[in-house]
Amino acid sequence: MHCSKHRASPLAEWLYEAGIGEARAALVARDQIWKAEIELDGSGPREGTIVGARLIDRPSNLVQLDSGAQALCENVPRNVTQGARVLVRILREPIPELGRPKLARTTPAPEGAEPMEGPDLLARILASDHPVRRLQPHEPDLLEHAGWSELLEEAASGEIGFAGGALRMSVTPAMTLFDVDGAPPLGALAVQAAHAVARTLERMGIGGSIGIDFPTLAGKAERQAVGEASGNGPGERDNTPETSERAGTGQASGAATDREVAGGVALEGRHDEVT
Question: Tens digits of per-residue pLDDT, 205-227?
């Protein structure tokens, strides 16, 4: 249920709510959510945590943290043997997935480092370039007014509408796939879809490999327009989706930042410039 009265702000600000069992935050501008994040209590070691561990399998660089959880460790020094103790820093938090969850990814901590907890959600957004408003239970639900429930529904169902069409999002262990559906003209549809995918990746903090099943595009100009709509200008093709045609469709894939998933929503804790 949306709030009927609230103090709207044209500038971007983080809305933060400490709830029971979880904390929620959203970067909101013009009454729209640009980024969303959920942090569950007891969800595992946070990114940036430095913790003791034991190397339990040298070939796979598998370590067991002092908490008992297992993680993968990168760049283990050659002189560290199986069974040895090592202080590690969490690079990526564990990712819950159907079947076998992805283990946290770690690296040996810098020399002289001491065990410490990584920054929590509130600390991360306070360190951003945007102001933080802490919501109170007796106040209007500004997260809901900005579209929190709608964002959760999009993440849970994979159905994401946009002007002139819709996306169907499917999350797999290997990549996140988007199918584009809508009416001609197909060039305009593909451009609008590219914008919608870019917004979705940003709002939900989705990273890893991305695949987009575009409709068939007639020529190079239309494909270039789709690339630009994806934030993929000429000569800037390393970290944004790339388009290529196949029988009947166009397919895009690309690499983005790592992400964690909690409560059915892909969560991302870095801020973006929103004006």
Answer: 888 899 999 888 877 888 888 87
